[in-house]
Every structure is written in structure tokens, then in C-alpha cells.
């Protein structure tokens, strides 16, 4: 075992990869270098700021085109997108939904919005995401597949769906997960909130289940201020998604008639305008983000005690948030290192507290979470903004 991790070496390695002209470097700042002003101004000039307008349609078309899905439906945020995804695949009251313990709280929250119960699943170190092989062994043990679905033998409840999350932009191992979903009659819903621009075996994330959710929050790869989208290759699900997110109103020249309980989840035109301008730049954003990741990867090779996390071999990742993984025996140093970096002008953050440790989810069912527990202790996110990936560092 090597000795204590050298905080100064870690700090210097990060600093050497970043611009020198800033006192403080944030984790992920938005970058507006294209048509943002023009498009937003057009909304103000024409008065089309709210719930309908050409930018919403254009944004949805651009998203579908970019991700290779048949349809995209824009909504107010990623959480709302996930909520509707679960409704679309038929998650109902008292169902269980399998979600990773290592995720942002929205993935688990939306399950409860449907009256269902999150059931927490372990992660694998290769992807930082859901481990399909470990889940398969677990379901073999606790689940029973009947003609009307998959049931948890311990709780008697139906297990309706599984929601993998592509952690920090790195795709989970989707092929074995798709196979597992067929075998256990589970719906697959991808939480692709962090993975716009990430591909699994050459195909964009969000294409493996019947529906998937994206987020355009201020800290994501592209932002609409706040926003999200539902992706699907199923035309009829896209129609339902649009209907449910626009108060379930039947089209009519003046009559207000709603045929079910809907949601006011549609994305305002103003936000979509920002989104169109951002999406136009996505290829160059990805190039910059990947070049920063490459720089970190090279720079961290000789540094003891930490490893820069790189994309799994089946993936092309957007490197949304760059990850340093502390070596196992250095985990106790995590908080000290975080404090040291933040004090020295480098914003660094830990991974989320695991879902089953939050008070509202502590009684939820869960499998053995050893790997997620270890990852939680070892993950540190370091600066990842698009603008950090320019050419200045080599100058
Ligand atoms: C960002 C994010 C969401 C959605 O967040 P919103 O802020 O509601 O857009 C959902 N899941 C994960 C994993 C996320 O990172």
C-alpha cells in the first residue's frame, strides 16, 4: 500500500489541465456562444414566450434527430419527463420499480409520484451504473414471473419497471439489461438526464426502452434554463406523452374539454428557444468536454491514490461530470480532499447520498448494495464545464 494521498499533487494536476486566469473554477457552468440571444430575443419581439411557439416544435425535432429516436416531447424539467415516462409504461399504485441506489433523488422521487415503491439496486464499478448481472441473480432469487407480470415473492407486490441511470454520462451495460427485462417482463425506462451525447455500442442512449427522459437543467450538457424531454420510438406513446403533459385537453377552437387528469408540464417557447441554440452547438460542446477528459486522463496517470474514471469500452460518453475515483484504501480521505480543493478554488463535489440512506426511502426494499456503498465513498466530481475544454491549456 502506498502512503497517504498527496493533496497538492491532485490539486496541481487539475490546475494544469485548466485555464490559469480564473480564481475559482465551478463544476459545470452553462456556455452560451451561439444563437441564444437571437432566438430568445425573437420570442420577446414576437410575444411567443409561453406554451406554444415554433421553437418548441423545432427543439423537439432537433432532439429526435440528434438522439436517433422517432419522437421527442419537450417538458418543464427532467423530473417531470421521468414522471410521465413511468405513467406511460403503466407504473401504478403499489407497484415496485427498480432504481439504482446511486442516483440523483429525482429517479426515486418520481416512483413515489405514481404511488409506487422504489426498490434499490446495486451498481457496478465499470460503469458507475446499475449492475445487470447482479440484478439478474437477485431477481432469480426474489422474483416470480407470472402471466400478468413479475412479482416480488417477499412483498407480494408487482415489479413493473427498471430505471437505469447513465451516471455522469457513462452508459450502463444495456444489452444484458434489455435481455433481463424480457426475461422478467419488466418495462425499461432510461433515466438519460445526464447522457445527452452518450452512446452505447454506437447508438444514442434513450433508445433501449419504450421511453426515456432527458434533462436540460442549468448544470447539464445543454441547458434550457430548466427543461426536459421524453424520448420514444413509439408514435402512439409520443402522442400520449404530448397529451398528458398538456393538461389532456382535446384540441378544439375554443372548448375546454379534458379527457383525463393531465399535467401542465409543457416547456415554454422561451426555454425551447435557448434549447435550439444550445443543441446547434452540441457537437462542439462534446468535442470540448471529451478533450478535457482526455487531458485529465493523461495527467492523472502518474498520480498515486486516485484514478480518473474513463468510459466503459462499449461506450462513447459525453463526460458530463468528470470523476476521480479514490483508491479503496484512500476513501477515508474523501472529505478532506473535497475541503482542500474547494478551499483552493477548484469546485469539487461528492456523489449523491445513496437513496436508501435518505429518510423517506429508508424503509424501501433493496438488494445488497456493497458496490454502490464503496463507490459513494470514493467518487469525487471535478470541474467539467464545456468552456474548460478549449485550446488555451496547451498554449
Ligand atoms: C438532472 C437529473 C434529473 C432531472 O433533473 P431536473 O432538474 O428535474 O431537470 C433526473 N435524474 C438525474 C440522474 C439527473 O441527473
Walk me through the structure.
By secondary structure, the protein is α+β, with helices and mostly antiparallel strands. The chain folds into two domains: 7-26 and 282-394, Aspartate Aminotransferase, domain 1, CATH 3.90.1150; 36-280, Type I PLP-dependent aspartate aminotransferase-like (Major domain) (Aspartate Aminotransferase, domain 2, 3-Layer(aba) Sandwich), CATH 3.40.640. It has twelve helices and 16 strands. It has helices spanning 7-16, 36-46, 54-67, 78-88, 105-113, 132-142, 174-184, 235-245, 269-280, 282-300, 334-343, 370-378, and strands at 71-75, 96-100, 117-121, 143-146, 149-152, 158-162, 187-191, 199-200, 203-204, 211-215, 228-232, 306-308, 315-316, 322-326, 349-350, 379-382. The strands form three sheets. Strands 1, 2, 3, 4, 5, 6, 7, 10 and 11 form a nine-stranded mixed beta sheet that branches. Strand 5 and strand 6 (158-162) form a beta hairpin. Helix 2 packs antiparallel against helix 9 (269-280). The relative contact order is 0.20. Bound molecules: pyridoxal-5'-phosphate. Pyridoxal-5'-phosphate binds at residues 77-79, 82, 103-104, 106-107, 165, 191, 193-194, 215, 217, 228.
Rg on CA atoms, Å: 21 Å
Provide the domain count: 2
Order of helices and strands: HHHEHEHEHEEEHEEEEEHHHEEEHEHE
**How many helices?**
12
CATH evolutionary superfamily of the largest domain: Type I PLP-dependent aspartate aminotransferase-like (Major domain)
The biggest beta sheet is recorded as: 9 strands, mixed
CATH topology of the largest domain: Aspartate Aminotransferase, domain 2
Mean pLDDT: 96
Number of strands: 16
Helix coverage percent? 25-40%
Which of globular, elongated, flat, extended, rod-shaped describes the shape?
globular
From the helix content, strand content and strand pairing, which structural class follows? alpha+beta
What is bound: which ligands? Answer: pyridoxal-5'-phosphate
CATH architecture of the largest domain: 3-Layer(aba) Sandwich
Question: Unreliable stretches, pLDDT < 50, 5 or more residues?
Answer: none
Instruction: Report strand %.
Output: 15-25%
The CATH class of the largest domain is Alpha Beta
Amino acid at each position: 500500500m502506498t502512503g497517504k494521498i498527496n493533496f497538492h499533487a491532485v490539486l496541481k494536476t487539475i490546475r494544469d489541465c485548466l485555464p490559469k486566469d480564473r480564481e475559482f473554477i465551478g463544476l459545470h457552468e452553462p456556455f452560451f456562444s451561439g444563437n441564444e440571444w437571437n432566438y430568445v430575443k425573437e420570442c420577446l419581439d414576437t410575444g411567443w414566450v409561453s406554451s406554444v411557439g415554433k421553437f418548441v416544435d423545432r427543439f423537439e425535432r432537433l432532439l429526435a434527430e440528434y438522439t436517433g429516436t422517432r419522437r421527442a416531447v419537450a417538458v418543464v424539467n427532467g423530473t417531470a419527463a421521468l414522471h410521465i415516462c413511468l405513467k406511460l409504461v403503466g407504473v401504478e399504485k403499489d407497484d415496485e420499480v427498480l432504481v439504482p441506489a446511486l442516483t440523483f433523488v429525482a429517479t426515486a422521487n418520481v416512483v413515489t409520484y405514481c404511488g409506487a415503491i422504489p426498490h434499490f439496486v446495486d451498481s457496478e464499478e465499470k460503469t458507475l451504473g446499475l449492475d445487470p448481472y447482479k440484478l439478474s441473480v437477485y431477481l432469480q432469487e426474489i422474483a416470480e414471473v407470472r402471466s400478468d407480470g413479475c412479482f416480488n415473492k417477499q412483498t407480494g407486490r408487482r415489479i413493473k419497471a427498471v430505471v437505469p441511470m447513465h451516471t455522469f454520462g457513462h452508459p450502463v451495460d444495456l444489452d444484458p439489461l434489455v435481455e433481463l427485462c424480457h426475461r422478467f417482463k419488466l418495462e425499461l425506462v432510461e433515466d438519460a438526464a445526464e447522457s445527452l451525447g452518450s452512446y452505447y455500442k454506437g447508438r444514442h442512449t434513450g433508445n433501449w426502452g419504450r421511453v426515456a427522459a432527458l434533462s436540460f437543467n442549468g448544470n447539464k450538457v445543454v441547458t434550457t434554463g430548466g427543461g426536459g424531454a421524453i424520448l420514444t420510438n413509439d408514435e402512439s406513446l409520443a402522442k400520449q406523452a404530448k397529451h398528458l403533459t398538456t393538461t389532456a385537453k382535446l384540441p378544439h377552437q375554443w372548448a375546454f374539454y379534458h379527457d383525463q387528469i393531465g399535467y401542465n408540464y409543457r416547456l415554454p417557447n422561451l426555454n425551447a428557444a435557448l434549447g435550439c441554440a444550445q443543441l446547434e452547438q452540441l457537437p462542439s460542446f462534446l468535442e470540448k468536454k471529451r478533450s478535457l477528459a482526455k487531458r485529465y486522463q493523461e495527467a492523472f496517470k502518474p498520480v498515486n491514490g486516485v484514478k480518473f474514471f474513463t468510459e466503459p469500452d462499449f461506450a462513447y460518453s459525453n463526460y458530463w461530470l468528470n470523476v476521480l475515483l479514490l483508491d479503496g484504501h484512500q476513501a477515508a480521505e474523501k472529505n478532506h480532499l473535497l475541503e482542500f480543493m474547494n478551499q483552493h478554488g477548484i469546485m469539487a463535489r461528492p456523489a449523491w447520498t445513496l437513496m436508501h440512506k435518505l429518510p423517506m426511502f429508508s424503509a424501501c426494499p433493496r438488494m445488497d448494495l456493497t458496490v454502490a456503498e464503496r463507490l459513494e465513498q470514493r467518487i469525487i466530481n471535478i470541474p467539467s464545464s464545456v468552456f474548460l475544454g478549449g485550446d488555451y491549456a496547451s498554449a
